[in-house]
Amino acid sequence: MIKTVIIEDEKPASRKLERMLSNFPEIEIVAKIESVEEGVAWFSENEHPQLIFSDIVLGDGLSFDIFEKIPTKGFIIYTTAFDQYTLKAFKLNSIDYLLKPILDEDLEGAVEKFKSFIPAKNTDGSQDIKQLIRKEKSTLSRVLVKIGYNLKIIQTQEISCFFSENKIVYLQTEDRTYPSDFTLDELEDVLDEKKFFRVNRQFIVSSDYIKNIHTSPYYKVDMKFQPEEEITVSRDRVKDFKDWLVS
């Protein structure tokens, strides 16, 4: 059995995740934790589970606070409605980051990913988590944006480009431009590098939406959907850009 803990301060969300996990007979939920204080106490007094499903924003702080005070070798799958914590999550034993509302197929994929990290039976299980996690980085598949008082989930496959303007990073889709909580540096770390490329200090473009590339007098990229400003490739990035196009 896979010993599992749920960290979630909203009871309906906790019950829903528990119901979804009941479809995995190999998973045994040993505790449900609702706060940072309760989490620190539980992880201080109990054997750490193999797998942890953790919301990030709790009533008394962030769940990161638990694992910064009580380091764990368990694998963490973060479940949250907020995308701005992605980068930090990946640095704290995270093997996946699921945006709410959690989809059945995303949960199944996360559980299967966890299983692929379980040490073989002939090992003593003492390997460090960083040695078990695959070398390829986790990638961002969805972005949560705020529109007035509403939240909207946008799949990264719908995004033509990301760009910075007046210290805010925006994403461009077919419909419109949306502000995000990321920096371009953070996005470089979490986007699929086969699909997205940073052409200069201001723009990250998607290969799926490149319409045309001008090469004279400088490299300029026309996207199917883009802001009014033209997108040029920095001179020191041209070779990498050409390599990326055919990779």
From TrEMBL:
Response regulatory domain ranges (all copies): 3-115
Alphabetized InterPro entries for the sequence: CheY-like_superfamily, LytR-like, LytTR_DNA-bd_dom, Sig_transdc_resp-reg_receiver
GO function terms (MF aspect): DNA binding; phosphorelay response regulator activity
SMART domains in the record: LytTR (SM00850), REC (SM00448)
One Pfam family from the record: LytTR
UniProt entry keywords in alphabetical sequence: Phosphoprotein
Domain HTH LytTR-type: 143-247
SUPFAM superfamilies (alphabetical): CheY-like (SSF52172)
Highest taxon, organism lineage: Bacteria
Modified residues (4-aspartylphosphate): 55
The protein, known as: Response regulator transcription factor
